[in-house]
Amino acid sequence: IDLGIASFLTDSNGTHIPNPRHARKAAARLEAAQRSLSRFPRCKAKDRTRNHQRAVEKVAALHGKVRRRRLDHAHKTALTLVRAHDFIAHEDLKIRNMSKAPAPKPDPTTPGVFLPNGAAAKAGLNRSIADAGWGVFLTILNAKAESAGREVMAVDPRNTSRTCPQCGHTAKENRPTQEKFHCVACGHQAHADEVGALNVLRAGLVRRNAHTA
Q1: Which of 8, 72, 78, 172 is positioned for an S-S bond with 141, CB 3.0–4.6 A?
Q2: Is 2 a catalytic site residue?
Q3: Which pairing describes strands 151-155 and 87-91: parallel, antiparallel, or unpaired?
């Protein structure tokens, strides 16, 4: 499986599971609830007025609803995979590292001034990663697989979506867009996430065979 943002995951058979984007769908209601809460001064719970307490409870309830929906989606998706497959390979994603803010870029010509570093775009990507809930999903997948006697294996994610599954050529130019894969060596074309999932499966099978040899 190849985990992503556009699709929650894509498997090596070419099946795409849509990303439900629970937090994004609830964003407007959350923003309104948090705006209402911000009108009240910070204080201890015992000092809150009834209206203040209602505002706190509304924000908490909306966050709780998003978490429950994300968990439900993760459980159902993991269960479907475990029921259908004896072996599941996924990328060994370092989610914390992926979510780090970009380092500031000082302007070498002007002391105290910083150049654009893509922080706004990275913040948007980080929100999408958090909303997808990959870490929670992989934890649930591993637990369900162990309970069902299935095997789950994490593999090195490097170049999985840049390596041609037909000829093996690896190049960043093989992936001209987020979704498109077009091998510059042999001309093979496919959806980039499907290529990634197929390469993840092959890497997982190689690693499993090495362990059992």
Answers
A1: 78
A2: yes
A3: parallel
